[in-house]
Design a protein that fits this description.
alpha/beta; 4-stranded mixed sheet; 13 helices; binds pyridoxal-5'-phosphate
Amino acid sequence: MRSNRTVNVDAAVAPLDAHMVRNYGRADEVFVDGCGAELRTAEGDVYLDFLGGIGVSALGHGHPELAAALADQAGRTLHVSNLFRHPYTVEVATRLARLTGLEAVLFTNSGAEANEAALKLARKHQRDAGRPERTGFIALEGGFHGRTMGALSVTSGASYRAPFEPMVPGTTFLPSGDLEAMAAALERDRPAAVILEPIQGEGGVVELSTGYLRGVRDLCDATGTVLIHDEVQSGCGRTGTFLAADAAGIKPDVVTLAKPLAAGLPMGAIVVRAELADVLKPGDHGSTFAGGPLVLRAALVFLTLLEEDGLMERAAELGARLRTGLEAFAADFPNVGAVRGRGLMLGLHVPEGAKELQQRLYRDHHLITNCTAGDVIRMLPPYVVTETQIDDALGRIRSALEGPVIDAP
Ligand code: PLP
């Protein structure tokens, strides 16, 4: 790893919290450097990063090809605005259209913004189709779509929404997996769109069944409802196919992407089918920063490596190795439940003490994961994680499970 001589660690630690809005509960460590799936603190402690910046750092840390491309781009142009062209727009959009099997791309700066754009596009589509009354949305219990007002309005957890009410009106939440409830709600509410995650991430790494995804697709077709798949967390090859819904052979009308798309830089996108490509006209929607040359250069590096270096196949293989290892714990530890998810998007169900286990993994075993939905240890490692690191992580989890029970601070 590189030296950290340019980082003033004391300045980084002491005054930060005094002048920060207190919306994050951060760990005390200051990470200054990284290499692949490893992160290093100012003191030189090395952590194994199995959270990858919450599913973002697909190429891990300190990736030389990405670093070189970004350094080169920084010396050319960082920003030109969407009033002008730059060399990477067409190439990234073409790749995303091919990889998703859809048609046209709109770039955003985040996952929440991608969902905002998708929701707006769905309403505009219904209006253009002569159905202006169709403004509502159907979303699923356990779903998470982001923190901006529109995305939050279709996010199911009441605790996320309650302090910020009133929400954008018109969202109906349905239990996931219940096709009859979906059919009845579509008939009754005639919404603009259904939005769902094929694998619910924040909701505890919960896979929706192929039958359910197909059923929702059919019902949306039958009722003229726009089907939005939020693959912000499950997309971009993490599960072994470019979209998680590819495994079920389902195409949505709109898919939203973000997290790993620019391998660490803030970037999102929506990709829509051909019939929706002309819904948003000049002036309808936009963003000052979105789709700039620096992030698209990063996305191009990521998508090229994904396709040409077999990173997607790697995600499937390494994910299978991690899953097999995690599944073995259930036989030895009564408190360990099922393993959920696919590829390198995995959750270990720990009905009691999941938060304590996650904190112990971090503090005592230097393995970074997170606890989601209260009882699931979630892992979203970089796609460049090695077999040895998978085995190492499994060893650390076993040691943590064997250790004495500790109280969460
Ligand atoms: N959608 C899903 C499925 C997510 O997991 C997230 C973030 O965790 C979001 C949307 C929001 O993305 P962002 O934090 O980039 O706004």
